[in-house]
Amino acid sequence: MSFYEHTIIARQDTSANQIKSLKDKYTKLVEKFEGKLVKTEEWGLINLTYLIKKNRKGNFIHFKIEGNGKMISELEKNEKLDKNLLRYMTVKVKKFDLETNYFNSEEGK
User: Fold this and answer.
1) Cα(4)–Cα(88) distance, rounded to whole angstroms?
2) Weakest-pLDDT range from 30-39, 52-61, 84-93, 97-106
3) Can you tell me the distance from the alpha carbon of 32 to that of 30, in angstroms, rounded to the nearest whole number?
4) How far apart are CA 44 and CA 54, in angstroms?
5) Model confidence over 33-68: pLDDT tens digits?
6) In terms of C-beta density within 10 A (0-12 exposed, 13-18 middle, 19 or more buried), how is residue 76 classed?
7) Residue 44 or residue 109, greater confidence
8) Contacts from 37-42 at CB under 8 Å and sequence distance 24+?
9) Could you give the domains of the chain?
């Protein structure tokens, strides 16, 4: 089993219920292909550096996944068809950093 960090960017006008259903949908897809979801982080609405499909902001959701390459390819295949998503990215890592939360709004205060 390999370790992957997977981030998706949903449209800025996506509601909280739609974000929850996106997380549930992709969690079930990971589990269907015998993957293990180690951690899910909702980073919230973040400004984009440039316009993506006429959107200035995006809702970021980050998954830490343990699984195989077939599971990742199925995950990305489904995300290509999803109209609520602007972008997605998967990075293979050697180990997870579970302590650091980079987008915690309370750390900057």
Assistant:
1) 13
2) 97-106
3) 5
4) 19
5) 998 999 998 988 999 999 999 999 999 999 999 999
6) middle
7) 44
8) 37/63, 37/64, 37/65, 38/64, 38/65, 38/66, 38/96, 38/98, 39/63, 39/64, 39/96, 39/98, 40/64, 41/101, 41/103
9) 2-93 (3.30.70.60)
